[in-house]
UniProtKB/TrEMBL annotation:
Name the UniProt record assigns to this protein: Nuclear transport factor 2
Source organism superkingdom: Eukaryota
Organism encoding this protein: Coemansia brasiliensis
GO-annotated cellular components: cytoplasm; nuclear envelope
UniProt xrefs under SUPFAM superfamilies: NTF2-like
Species classification: Eukaryota, Fungi, Fungi incertae sedis, Zoopagomycota, Kickxellomycotina
Function: Has a role in nuclear-cytoplasmic transport of proteins and mRNAs.
Amino acid sequence: MADLDNIAKEFANYYYTTFDNDRKALAPLYSDVSMMTWEGTQHLGTANIMEKLVTLPFQRIAHKITTIDTQPSIQGTNAIIISITGQLMFDDEPKPQQFCQTFQLVNNNNSFFIFNDVFRLNYA
């Protein structure tokens, strides 16, 4: 399980650092079969996912990870589920927003890609 936890931590750090600095650079992490649900709206394939991510209505964002939970997924394959909670800081907003994001990573030719991505803001 330690290997999965390390993969999850490395993935999360890479994903959110890239998201915060250059969302367009996330494209290689997705594929044409990837599905992202963003606040209840589904986007299929790299092009549609990237269109959503690069058109989000903020200029600056910073993610702060609070928790990372990991489980193996799809018996007999090399896939993992990663559930992440944390805080977001948008532009000049003084109060952080809470978020939850879940990924299913699937191994393809010794490299993981995001097969599923589900994102929600947590409103109190």
